[in-house]
From TrEMBL:
It catalyses: a 2'-deoxyadenosine in DNA + S-adenosyl-L-methionine = an N(6)-methyl-2'-deoxyadenosine in DNA + S-adenosyl-L-homocysteine + H(+). It comes from the Bacteria. Keywords: Methyltransferase, Restriction system, S-adenosyl-L-methionine, Transferase. Residues 122-426 form the DNA methylase adenine-specific domain. This is site-specific DNA-methyltransferase (adenine-specific).
Length: 467
């Protein structure tokens, strides 16, 4: 029962009973804190954490009464015994319904995190439990869940393209730390060692920052992750990152903006939208051979408002943009805003060229509202990038196209992949009606985007004459 308990949603359903007596903003802290305490209690002596006498799970019998006070005391004792956990574990268990808390403690007590669970290390099983809960919390919290969770397929795609085999990995808005976990997993899957990469990050939200610290502890990843706002205070001012992975908040309007900030090398970002502030911060953190992958709202590829078009053009002309990927819709349950991926490279293997990938038709619907990128999807997109990087790429109509700077200039530095990849070459004679409608709708949207762009060009020219 131990290894499949959480997979069958038993833990989730039990934890969900706390909802009525817990502030929604603290709900995940309660559950993840308890799971982590059970893990360190089971694995102390073999694991990376010390658990003092009196703080073990066996000391938390609900029948003894005062369960909330004893859980809080155990959390404090574990933090004092392990400096890396200082300020990370929640001490808020007296605020919840004690009867329901006792029931959850009894249920979690049935899960065993010994040195190994079955044939796998306990750390790996705990990591899966933790990631499972993070995904469930993100779905349950809707749009707020986007503050700390990036869909697993998107994270895997970023990592597979960047290939962070070694070096300094940075995330300026690290959420719950999923980018770091996937980067380490990539290293280990290629027979590397955990210390082949060094992790640096920052997160403005205190509760989310604690989630990240706990997530790193769960996966036994040593990292320097600080709580700070990247625009107000660069937590790692001297860092020259080898790899940056980030999913910044889309279209953030409330952000600290210093017009004299030296990071705005390619243009002053508008006060009402931080998209190009995030991009320029990330570019500024790259070392001489650094590369970055960033999730962005689709508007970043084409917007010309408030100087954003000029910033985008400057980034392209500086030959920093290596690839742009248009993602399918409904990947992000937490936001309806369509998304894309930008990749940057300080030392491009193919100078003067950008790879465009249109992946809008990819992915698999897992229910009526959510799509995922499968392993095959990730492999196809990452494979196209690697082929281009290694100078072995051939354009695939409707999917990928490598464009030179002159071609991009002819599109006024708009980077929407649909403009460059063209239409797919396929026999549509037996195409299902639903697929045909979806394809034609996407083609219509592409034409409407082009029409809107040309309309703006005409208006700009008329404005010059009338002025």
């Amino acid at each position: 029962m131990d290894d499949v308990l959480w997979k069958d949603d038993v833990l989730w359903k039990a934890a969900d009973k706390l909802r009525g007596s817990v502030d929604a903003a603290q709900y995940r802290d309660f559950v993840l804190g308890l799971v982590f305490l059970k893990y360190v209690s089971d694995s102390s002596g073999e694991g990376a954490f010390r658990v003092p006498d009196g703080a073990r799970w066996a000391d938390l019998s609900p029948a003894a009464g005062g369960i909330g006070e004893r859980v809080d005391a155990a959390m404090g004792a574990v933090m004092r015994a392990n400096p890396s956990l200082d300020g990370v574990l929640p001490q808020i268990f007296t605020r919840v319904d004690q009867r329901r808390l006792g029931g959850l403690v009894e249920l979690i007590g049935q899960v065993r995190f010994g040195a190994e669970v079955g044939a796998r290390p306990a750390r790996d099983v705990l990591g899966e439990v933790y990631e499972y809960f993070l995904e469930k919390f993100a779905r349950a919290e809707g749009r707020r869940g986007g503050e700390f969770y990036t869909p697993a397929g998107v994270v895997r795609l970023l990592v597979e393209v960047l290939e962070p085999f070694r070096g300094r990995v940075y995330d300026p808005c690290c959420g719950s730390g999923g980018m770091f976990v996937q980067a380490e997993r990539f290293v280990l899957s290629h027979r590397g060692r955990p210390d082949d990469i060094a992790v640096y990050g920052q997160e403005a939200n205190e509760r989310t920052w604690r989630l990240a610290r706990m997530n790193l502890a769960v996966h036994e990843i040593a990292g320097d992750v600080r709580r700070s706002d990247a625009f107000y205070e660069d937590a790692h001012p001297e860092l020259a990152a080898d790899h940056v992975l980030a999913n910044p908040p889309f279209n953030m309007s409330d952000w600290y903006r210093d017009p004299g900030d030296p990071r705005w090398r390619y243009g002053l970002p508008p006060a009402g939208n931080a998209n190009f502030a995030w991009i320029q911060h990330i570019v500024a953190k790259l070392g001489p051979q650094g590369r970055a992958g960033v999730v962005m709202a689709n508007g970043s590829m084409s917007s010309r408002q408030s100087g954003e078009g000029e910033i985008r053009a400057a980034l392209v002309e500086a030959d920093l943009v290596s690839c742009v990927v248009a993602l399918p819709d409904r990947l992000f349950r937490t936001t309806p805003i369509p998304a894309c991926l930008w990749f940057f490279d300080r030392r491009k293997s193919v100078p003067g060229e950008v790879l465009f990938v249109d992946a809008r038709d990819m992915g698999t619907m897992v229910d009526r509202t959510e799509r995922i990128l499968t392993a095959d999807d990730v492999a196809r997109i990452a494979g196209a990038y690697r082929a281009w990087r290694d100078r072995g790429h051939s354009d695939v109509p409707g999917f990928s196209h490598a464009a030179g700077l002159d071609e991009i200039r002819s599109h006024d530095h708009v980077l929407t992949p649909g403009r460059y990849v063209g239409a797919a070459e396929a026999d549509r004679g037996d195409e299902p009606a639903a697929d045909r409608v979806e394809r034609l709708a996407k083609e219509l949207l592409t034409h409407l985007e082009e029409s809107a762009r040309l309309d703006q060009v005409v208006r700009d020219e008329l404005g010059r004459f009338s002025g």
